[in-house]
């Protein structure tokens, strides 16, 4: 039974038609056979969706037009004007005997689109038909592309815009501008113009956005806020001290007993000398602190060991070591949290 079935299967397989594929032939080369690909399909190119023309009539006559392709957008620009505005495009247009069409990769950012980013760059750097004013919306793109395409004129315009508007913006906006200046390596003077507005942020906000700043700038901001805190403390002390030197009108002077007929006597209180008397009694008793300070009043802090002035030249008393340690420990924990989160994210990946 097994042999019969086995024979039946053999006869079935032998009766089936077999396919014979032709052998691939190639051109012989020194006895070796090389298989040549038959595919002749051209490279796929993105279709041009729109064309933006930045040429004038003189460019068409002189033949100085060039085409810059950014994804699906074609920019018709003057070769001379763009070369004057950007060292990058000057090198591109002069290479290989002068190229007239260039494909440019603007950036890897998708919002706004690369075509929009390059349009902002063209309109803010090429003077024809007219320079577009830089705004808060286009500032970061212009700063980045000014460095990307080595456009010194656009870089100077961005620096001027930051100088003129940094102090009038909200502190968090100025912080973003300062971060862009650090990221794109703008001049230190441009960074300095943003720092007074950034210093208005609270200490908690500065700690939360510490990753956006360098260690040197972060230290300078803390030092500026510390000195400003000392000045505010002195101002509070001056205000309270002036309020303590008050005057009132009484029927009789409590010091010399002087009275005025049918009138009240003006009595002055001098907390510095711990005296109360009329104008005649207090004629030579002025404010002792103002006399010693000569117009520059100083606030003081009374600790259990000494009376310490509040300024940036005074060392902290030994009793403040515990408080300093607690603040330093808390700041170290805050700065280490982002690193721990980053390490945990990497371990999960």
What does this molecule look like?
Helix content is 47%, strand content 12%. The protein is built from 13 helices and eleven strands. The strands form four sheets. Strands 3-5-4-6 form a four-stranded mixed β-sheet. A hairpin with a 2-residue loop joins strand 4 and strand 5. Helix 3 (79-85) crosses helix 4 (87-94) and helix 8 (171-183) packs antiparallel against helix 9. The chain is elongated. The two termini are 62 Å apart. Residues 1-14, 26-37 and 39-43 have low confidence and may be disordered.
Summarize the entry for a quick read:
By secondary structure, the protein is an alpha+beta fold.
Topology diagram in text:
Layout: H1 2-15, E1 28-29, E2 32-33, E3 50-53, H2 57-62, E4 65-70, E5 73-78, H3 79-85, H4 87-94, E6 101-103, H5 114-125, H6 139-148, H7 152-165, H8 171-183, H9 188-198, H10 203-208, H11 215-244, E7 247-250, E8 265-270, E9 275-278, H12 288-293, E10 300-302, E11 307-309, H13 321-348
Parallel strand pairs: 3-5, 4-6
Antiparallel strand pairs: 1-2, 4-5, 7-8, 8-9, 10-11
Helix pairs in contact: 3-4, 5-6, 6-7, 8-9
Protein name: BTB domain-containing protein
Biased composition (Polar residues): 1-16, 24-40
Domain BTB: 64-123
């Amino acid at each position: 039974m097994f042999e019969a079935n086995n024979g039946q299967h053999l006869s079935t397989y032998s009766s089936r038609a077999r396919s014979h594929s032709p052998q691939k032939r190639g051109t012989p080369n020194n006895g070796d056979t090389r298989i040549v690909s038959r595919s002749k399909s051209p490279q796929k190119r993105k279709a041009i969706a729109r064309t933006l023309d930045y040429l004038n009539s003189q460019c068409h006559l002189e033949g100085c037009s060039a085409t810059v392709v950014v994804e699906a957008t074609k920019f018709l620009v003057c070769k001379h004007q763009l070369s004057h505005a950007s060292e990058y495009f000057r090198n591109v247009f002069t290479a290989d005997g002068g190229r007239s069409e260039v494909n440019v990769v603007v950036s890897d950012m998708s919002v706004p689109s690369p075509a929009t980013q390059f349009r902002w760059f063209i309109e803010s750097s090429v003077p024809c038909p007219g320079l577009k004013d830089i705004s808060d919306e286009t500032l970061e793109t212009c700063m980045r592309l000014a460095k990307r395409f080595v456009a010194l004129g656009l870089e100077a315009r961005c620096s001027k815009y930051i100088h003129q508007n940094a102090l009038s913006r909200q502190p968090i906006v100025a912080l973003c501008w300062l971060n862009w200046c650090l990221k794109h390596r703008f001049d230190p003077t441009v960074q300095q113009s943003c720092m007074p507005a950034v210093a208005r942020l609270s200490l908690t906000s500065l700690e939360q956005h510490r990753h956006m700043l360098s260690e040197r700038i972060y230290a300078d901001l803390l030092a500026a806020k510390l000195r400003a805190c000392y000045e505010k403390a002195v101002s509070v002390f001056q205000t309270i001290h002036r309020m303590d030197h008050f005057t009132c009108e009484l029927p009789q002077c409590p010091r010399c007993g002087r009275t005025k007929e049918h009138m009240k006597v003006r009595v002055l209180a001098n907390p510095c000398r711990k005296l109360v008397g009329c104008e005649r009694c207090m004629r030579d008793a002025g404010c002792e602190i103002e006399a010693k300070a000569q117009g520059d009043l100083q606030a003081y802090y009374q600790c259990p060991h000494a009376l310490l002035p509040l300024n940036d030249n005074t060392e902290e008393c030994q009793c403040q070591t515990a408080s300093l340690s607690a603040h330093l420990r808390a700041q170290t924990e805050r700065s280490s949290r982002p690193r721990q989160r980053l390490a945990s994210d990497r371990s999960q990946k």
